Amino acid sequence: MSTSAPDPASATALPGGAGPYAEERAVAVAAAEAAGHMLRERFGAPLAVRTKDASGDVVTALDLAAEEIVLARLRRHFPYDSILSEEAGMLDGPGHRTWLVDPLDGTNNVAVGLPACVVGIALCVAGAPVLGVVHEPLTGRTWHAVSGHGAHTDTGPLTGPDGRLPAPGPVIAWTQGHAVGRRNTRAAALRQHLELGCRRVLQLWAPLLGWSMLARGTIDGFVGYRAEGLDLPAGALLAAESGVLLRTLGGGVFRPGFEGPGEDRSFVAARADTLDYLLAQVAAVGVRDPGRPRVS
């Protein structure tokens, strides 16, 4: 696995690497894999954990070390771009593009010894994602997508779930934003209803991991309630480019972004029969986005 940024000319070596944003994709993949290499080597070592805020979210030295690796590469290759990163915050640049960096999505898992985490990087232009990279350190797998050019991994394109509704019900992932408290009745009602109507609802503590599973077709859908903005664009683009449809809770077209209020980041992601089923489950609870019409 490479731990140095490739020459832009080598970008076509990545599946789907030719075309727009080829250099950006190559640099982002190399940066995510370099951070992942460090995380894999240090996983399981004694770890100091610090609580970041009242929500219980935590940060470790691994987050900061991985962030330093990714930021150094992005700033070296794209010095005019802005970067919004989980721990460093916003690093403004004079250009119109913004990189989003989640150096360790799944810190809460790592803190208790669960090997479920990923590194996520997205590039947004005018607030919309055009490039997404998700890397899983402990397996060494990387998934990447460019808007309009499909989602890929080392073995070829990702095609997502087939959309057929399994007889026992779908297996889905669930995420909610840090600002959504445990006592939020709307979120609790929706999650409970999904638990009753689905075979399994996974709360992974790592939304990007859920998105990669959906893009690979190993789960059937994903529902988010006021999701965090930092990791949403990379994962949603990965899923969308694999053929997954993104909808608001009311059934309208969902456009993932990192700006604006959390209410704008509630979604249902699936295909075909599973999408219809999940939207019906949401409608039964009555949790909808105001002013967002359902589409047929």
Describe this structure in words.
About 30% of the residues lie in helices and about 25% in strands. It has about 300 residues and is α+β, with helices and mostly antiparallel strands. It has two domains: about 10-155, 2-Layer Sandwich (Fructose-1,6-Bisphosphatase, Chain A, domain 1), CATH 3.30.540; about 170-285, D-Maltodextrin-Binding Protein, domain 2, CATH 3.40.190.80. It has an eight-stranded mixed beta sheet, sandwiched between helices. It starts with about 20 loop residues before the first helix and ends in an 11-residue tail after the last helix.
Brief rundown of the structure:
By secondary structure, the chain is of the alpha+beta class. It has two domains: 8-157, 2-Layer Sandwich (Fructose-1,6-Bisphosphatase, Chain A, domain 1), CATH 3.30.540; 171-285, 3-Layer(aba) Sandwich (D-Maltodextrin-Binding Protein, domain 2), CATH 3.40.190.80.
Please render the helix and strand layout as text:
Blueprint: H1 22-42, E1 49-51, E2 58-60, H2 61-77, E3 82-85, E4 89-91, E5 97-105, H3 107-111, E6 118-125, E7 128-136, E8 141-146, E9 151-153, E10 156-157, E11 171-176, H4 185-197, E12 200-202, H5 207-216, E13 221-225, H6 232-241, E14 245-247, E15 267-270, H7 272-285
The name of the CATH topology of the largest domain is Fructose-1,6-Bisphosphatase, Chain A, domain 1
Query: How helix-rich are the residues, as a percent range?
Result: 25-40%
Helix count, per DSSP?
Answer: 7
Low-confidence stretches: 1-10, 290-296
Overall number of structural domains: 2
Distance between the termini: 45 Å
Computed structural class? alpha+beta
Question: What is the number of strand segments?
Answer: 15
Q: Tell me, what is the CATH class of the largest domain?
A: Alpha Beta
Estimate the strand proportion.
Answer: 15-25%
Give the SSE order as H and E letters.
Answer: HEEHEEEHEEEEEEHEHEHEEH
CATH homologous superfamily descriptor of the largest domain: Fructose-1,6-Bisphosphatase, subunit A, domain 1
- Tell me, briefly, the overall form: globular
Largest sheet: 8 strands, mixed
